[in-house]
User: Which sequence fits this backbone?
């Protein structure tokens, strides 16, 4: 069933209204008629099945026939902080990591970031990133569109560590990190068992630029509480690392089932 | 250090010769001079550090100064069987999964594969896929280039299951599979402990086309011994699924470290 994200004010107790591009898509692309159904999500956790009453290209009016209670959101909230990569690689990261369940994205600039910011283009790029996140969230049947935060610098990123229960720094260091990701995640999962107030723990996953982090940056991150972790013996491209790590986090957190004997 | 894959006959006990495109790359792009070093890999597990003696655009002669014994290959050999996806998506799958350590690729056609084979173009595409695998293997510091096997059909894929110790069928089935990937992998890992002859177990990871597998296909795979597994509550694009599953397999097999208490 087609899924649309709507603004909370487009959804009442009993009805949903599609407008703008969504109404046009529903009528023109999906060729929807009265009686056809779609899923609407208010992006804040409420998902409903709605049946169309009237369909016009500028507005589709529908009545809610079912509330969906089984959320596809991850239990752990993973914010992906990615050093701005070259070309359109951040688009790939946002699309793939949205499918994989990322909670938010925080692009940042670090010492070895080679991308030059162009103020005139920034708003346009941000709009494009948000559109990609929305479409990927719809496609993967999520009930939340990940937030794309404004680009920040390294100091601002460090200053925000305290908002997270766990900060992971993917630091290859010639392909060998001191601690494997698995031990760090397993320790964290166990720590949650004795901290019942963290039902939805916040995790910050930091991925560096093509050239990696400068040693001073890795040290500053560790001093601020980040855990440096390796992603195995092979060198992953910067745009591959976040999805790879997200899959591992999902695996450890129980998204892919548990162990029957655990 | 730059890494080049060479044919076994280009490497002797004490020397390495780069030829063709690799020699040109070494001299023209890397601007290598006598004394400079590179890593050469024979693609069969032997990796060496070599120091250049003479550098010309058609041949670079180097002496071996060190054997590298610490392999970046995965312990479990994962063959990625991917239903031929649209456009150039298989290129993405090959590039990313080579970085992540895939052992081989087996493209196949299934009921809902929408791609039409064009015999005239097949050899050119295969050449391109092999080039992408070679470059990604070099970039991620692997000592083996994954093999890209010729496209096969569903019956041929089924007939080959017996060559594997584990066959995983990624089957979303409306986003909910009967068994989570984690339990299946954990059971498999435990089974290896009592089967010491499988030091390098062979795993076949099967990812379906955009429209998923037909029910008869999933049934036939199960009847031939495949384990149907889900990759979580969100619907992943076909080109995202293999990398996501590979990361999970690497995680379970111990590539990202173990549990100190396990």
Assistant:
């Amino acid at each position: 069933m087609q899924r649309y994200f709507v603004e909370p004010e487009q959804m009442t107790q009993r009805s949903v209204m599609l407008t703008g591009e969504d109404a046009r898509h529903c009528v023109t692309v999906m060729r929807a008629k009265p009686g056809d159904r779609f899923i609407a999500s208010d992006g804040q956790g409420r998902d409903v099945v709605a049946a169309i009453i009237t369909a016009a290209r500028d507005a589709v009016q529908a009545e809610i026939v079912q509330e969906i209670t089984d959320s596809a959101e991850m239990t752990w909230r993973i914010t992906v902080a990615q050093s701005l990569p070259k070309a359109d690689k951040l688009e790939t990261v946002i699309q793939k990591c949205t499918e994989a369940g990322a909670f938010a994205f925080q692009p940042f600039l670090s010492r070895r970031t080679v991308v030059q910011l162009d103020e005139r283009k920034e708003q346009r790029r941000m709009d494009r990133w948000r559109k990609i996140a929305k479409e990927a969230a719809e496609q993967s049947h999520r009930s939340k569109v990940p937030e794309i935060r404004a680009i920040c610098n390294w100091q601002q990123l460090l200053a925000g560590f305290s908002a997270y229960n766990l900060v992971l720094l993917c630091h290859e260091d010639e392909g060998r990190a001191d601690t494997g990701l698995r031990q760090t995640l397993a320790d964290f999962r166990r720590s949650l068992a004795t901290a019942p107030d963290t039902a939805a723990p916040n995790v910050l996953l930091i991925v560096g630029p093509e050239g990696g982090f400068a040693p001073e940056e890795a040290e500053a991150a560790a001093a601020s509480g980040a855990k440096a972790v390796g992603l195995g013996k092979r060198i992953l491209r910067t745009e591959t690392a976040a999805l790879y790590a997200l899959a591992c986090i999902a695996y450890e957190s129980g998204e892919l089932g548990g162990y029957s004997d655990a």
About this structure: Chain B is about 35% helix and 25% strand. Chain B touches chain A at residues 70-72, 96, 99-101, 139-142, 175, 179-183, 186, 230-237, 240, 243-245, 247-248, 250-252, 254-260 (CB under 8 Å).
